[in-house]
């Protein structure tokens, strides 16, 4: 499937402004700066398991089905419910404080999060 793979953080843009805008605590901001997150995606049709592995062993996993409400967790650990959609080949979800899209572009996972006009872009290269 289009999204299935393992992706390692390559670059980001506007991290500090974005995480401050969404209210991430200072300790989590420092922990996440230039963090070599590995994102593992398993796609089976409209069913996804999206796992982020952080240095130090912390892992966050969100499982969802396109167009069905699912229990989710933010990068700050906050739990919420969301309906993830597929729009033009992009995964689209509204998190509590931001709008998030993910797509495969040039073989890379490109994620864009927007909160009150502040745009954060994270690019990850495919490693498996």
UniProtKB/TrEMBL annotation:
UniProt cross-references to SUPFAM superfamilies, sorted A to Z: Lipocalins (SSF50814)
Domain Cytosolic fatty-acid binding proteins per the UniProt entry, residue ranges: 5-22
Listed InterPro entries: Calycin, Fatty_acid-bd, ILBP
Domain of life where this protein originates: Eukaryota
Localization per Swiss-Prot or TrEMBL: Cytoplasm
Principal place of residence: cytoplasm
PANTHER family: FATTY ACID BINDING PROTEIN (PTHR11955)
Protein name: Fatty acid binding protein 6
Species name: Gallus gallus (Chicken)
Name of the gene encoding the protein in the UniProt record: FABP6
């Amino acid at each position: 499937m289009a999204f299935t793979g393992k992706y390692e953080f390559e670059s980001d843009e506007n991290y500090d402004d974005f995480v401050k805008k969404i209210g991430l605590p200072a300790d989590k901001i420092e922990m996440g700066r230039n963090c070599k997150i590995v994102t593992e995606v398993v796609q089976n049709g409209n069913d996804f398991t999206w796992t982020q592995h952080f240095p130090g062993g912390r892992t966050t996993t969100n499982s969802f089905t396109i167009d069905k409400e699912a229990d989710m967790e933010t990068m700050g650990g906050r739990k919420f419910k969301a309906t993830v959609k597929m729009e033009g080949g992009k995964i689209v979800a509204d998190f509590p404080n931001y709008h998030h899209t993910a797509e495969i572009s040039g073989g890379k996972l490109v994620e864009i999060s927007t909160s009150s006009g502040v745009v954060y872009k994270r690019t990850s290269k495919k490693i498996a």
